[in-house]
């Protein structure tokens, strides 16, 4: 008989609806039941694409004997971390305060008010490798709680105090370009010079670090910083972490050379990587980066589109009960699909070995340097298409088809940014379609929701939703010139200030009227995604540029004053905030004034540049700019005699604008600082 998760919207929760565990969703009713029955709470947090979540579910949550212990001793709450990231953030911080590295599934023990007193991650059904059996953990925790063990109260008080201390601002600190250059140099020192990316394993894309290196190159001209970012992109784009048959990047590789992925695919990873691929191709012209961008968007359109035009959250790592089964090949399977001659050719280029390159099977990759002609690449593309058609007949991994506003916002902005650099203008309309769905289906009374599935909206939204969707609106405003996108960004920023701003100058993750938690999360560090407060800071600078309202820049300064003291002791975990500070210090704007082919050429050239934080505005007449815009005064003086004049671009930054630029080559030189 289904448990209470049968009424959930989340695909992850629905995976557990037939468990013998009497699961509750995270609701006030669950906590009321804990108080009524005088039982502690077992909180289990995971997500649909999590391999070890599936392992623990199969071993313990589907086991009737284990479930009986859970049901007798605890009120059991299951949470989808993607649907309720604020809950995940609070209890992950608590778990780390206990000295546990953290990860998913997360298993936390709480009192009836939600205060944590102990926790861990995956627990095996039977004791092994020094880990206790899950049922032993359950009985020990329940007995300690029921007996009033003083360690429970001590842990609870100590954890809550540590969590509150982490939220308190420290003294004022100053971080400028010298400090940004220093941290870029230090990150360069821990990059893997052989395989790319950070040294060691597992290897995550860690896009905020790559962004920081790229910005360091822009500031200093140090080629090694740029090359380290390109090397990482090259490694992950040739390795098994990239799906060479169907496109798209997995979440991370378990080894140090990008070969063996953890096969789940997340929307946010692919958004952040797509953004960097556009920069890399625009800078180098390397076909690898263009191809990976096009293939990844192809995967997005083929496998991640939802009915309304937005994008699904993730694809599972497992199919048919095995991690990666959908994506790996034996040599015989390739022979059967392609025939002997083509199979030998494909296997040589994609490391399909007789005995496999991982657990007896082969993960397609191009890590071995092999010379390939243009004709070879055309032939390989045709063979990949054949293998994709064969693969699509397999049992696919599960798709978590909920629409998350924050992850969609990241992908929308990435599509818009990559479109001119890769030469795919149609991606802007793809992005606009996703934006329309969220603006029409995930907004109530002008406020964003967080997650949508099957007509059900998780509301109110989080600061991360506003951060990403404001960024998406600004990207579309620049790309299309449509004022409605800018107006939407302004309105959402107002909602963010009303419902999420802290007195100190930062932003809470949750809204003021969201259901009660033991505290309101206000994290500043990055996780798999750049911290929303960093995204908000970048948005505020761009709003100041595009509207001419300097109050937005002042708000960004107040945000930095609040957050930098907390970030200073842990700069490596705050790459996103450091990148936002770089935006504040160096953001530039290109204003193109005029109509016709010459104005089009200047606009396209500015948008193609491999530089972060260059806003591009296109207006037909200087009167369309804000009254106090520096480019307006210069352009007006050139046309004061009534002569419209030739189209021209102005590069603005640091309180001034350049003289008019009428040639594409000169505009590119000016933007590169030559």
UniProtKB/TrEMBL annotation:
Pfam families the UniProt entry points to: Thioredox_DsbH
Highest taxon of source: Bacteria
Gene3D superfamilies, per the entry: 1.50.10.10, Glutaredoxin
Spermatogenesis-associated protein 20-like TRX domain location: 3-163
Matches recorded under InterPro entries: 6-hairpin_glycosidase_sf, 6hp_glycosidase-like_sf, Ssp411, Ssp411-like_TRX, Thioredoxin-like_sf
Transmembrane regions: none
GO process annotations (BP): carbohydrate metabolic process
This protein's name: Thioredoxin domain-containing protein
């Amino acid at each position: 008989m289904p448990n209470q998760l049968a009424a959930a919207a989340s695909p992850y929760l629905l995976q557990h609806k037939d468990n013998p565990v009497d699961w509750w969703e995270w609701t006030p009713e669950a906590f009321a039941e804990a108080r009524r029955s005088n039982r502690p709470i077992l909180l289990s947090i995971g997500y649909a694409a999590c391999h070890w979540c599936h392992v623990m579910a199969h071993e313990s949550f589907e086991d009737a004997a284990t479930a009986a212990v859970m049901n007798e001793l605890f009120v059991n709450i299951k949470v989808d971390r993607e649907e309720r990231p604020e809950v995940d953030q609070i209890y992950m911080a608590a778990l780390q305060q206990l000295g546990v590295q953290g990860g998913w599934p997360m298993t936390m023990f709480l009192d009836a008010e939600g205060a944590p007193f102990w926790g861990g991650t995956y627990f095996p059904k039977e004791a092994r490798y020094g880990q206790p059996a899950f049922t032993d953990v359950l009985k020990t925790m329940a007995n300690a709680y029921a007996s009033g063990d003083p360690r429970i109260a001590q842990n609870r008080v100590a954890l809550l105090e540590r969590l509150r201390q982490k939220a308190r601002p420290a003294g004022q600190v100053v971080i400028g370009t010298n400090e940004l250059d220093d941290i870029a140099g230090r990150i360069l020192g821990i990059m893997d010079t052989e395989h790319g990316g950070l040294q060691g394993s597992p290897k995550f894309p860690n896009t905020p670090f790559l962004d920081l290196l790229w910005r360091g190159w822009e500031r200093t001209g140090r080629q090694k910083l740029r090359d380290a970012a390109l090397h990482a992109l090259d490694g992950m784009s040739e390795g098994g972490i990239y799906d060479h048959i169907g496109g798209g990047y997995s979440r991370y590789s378990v080894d140090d050379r990008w070969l063996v992925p953890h096969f789940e695919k997340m929307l946010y990873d692919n958004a952040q990587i797509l953004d960097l691929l556009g920069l890399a191709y625009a800078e180098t012209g390397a076909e690898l980066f263009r191809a990976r961008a096009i293939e990844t968007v192809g995967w997005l359109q083929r496998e991640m589109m939802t009915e309304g035009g937005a994008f699904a959250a993730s694809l599972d790592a497992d199919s048919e009960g095995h991690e990666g089964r959908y994506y790996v090949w034996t040599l015989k399977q390739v022979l059967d699909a392609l025939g002997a001659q083509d199979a030998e050719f494909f296997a040589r280029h994609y490391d399909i070995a007789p005995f496999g390159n991982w657990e007896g099977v082969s993960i397609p990759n191009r890590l071995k340097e092999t010379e390939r002609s243009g004709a070879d690449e055309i032939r390989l593309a045709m063979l990949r298409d054949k293998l994709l058609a064969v693969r699509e007949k397999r049992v696919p991994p599960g798709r978590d088809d909920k629409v998350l506003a924050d992850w969609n916002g990241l992908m929308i902005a990435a599509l818009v940014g990559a479109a001119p650099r890769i030469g795919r203008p149609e991606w802007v309309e793809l992005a606009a379609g996703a934006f329309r769905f969220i603006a029409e289906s995930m907004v109530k009374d002008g406020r964003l929701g967080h997650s949508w599935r099957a007509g059900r909206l998780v509301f109110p939204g989080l600061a991360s939703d506003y951060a990403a969707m404001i960024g998406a609106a600004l990207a579309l405003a620049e790309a299309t010139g449509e004022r409605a996108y800018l107006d939407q960004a302004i309105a959402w920023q107002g909602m963010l200030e009303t419902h999420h701003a802290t007195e100190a100058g930062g932003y809470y993750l949750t809204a003021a009227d969201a259901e009660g938690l033991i505290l309101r999360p206000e994290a500043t560090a990055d996780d798999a995604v750049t911290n929303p407060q960093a995204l908000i800071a970048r948005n505020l600078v761009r709003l100041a540029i595009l509207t001419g309202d300097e109050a937005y820049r002042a708000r960004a300064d107040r945000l930095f004053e609040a957050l930098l003291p907390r970030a200073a002791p842990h700069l490596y975990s705050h790459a996103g905030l450091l990148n936002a500070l770089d935006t504040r210090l160096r953001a530039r704007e290109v204003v193109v004034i005029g109509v016709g082919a010459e104005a089009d050429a200047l606009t396209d050239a500015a948008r193609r540049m491999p530089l972060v934080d260059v806003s591009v505005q296109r207006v037909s007449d200087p009167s369309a700019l804000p009254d106090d815009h520096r480019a307006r005064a210069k352009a007006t003086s050139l046309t004061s005699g009534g002569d419209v004049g030739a189209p021209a671009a102005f590069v603005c930054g640091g309180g001034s604008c350049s003289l008019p630029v009428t040639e594409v080559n000169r505009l590119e030189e000016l933007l590169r600082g030559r």
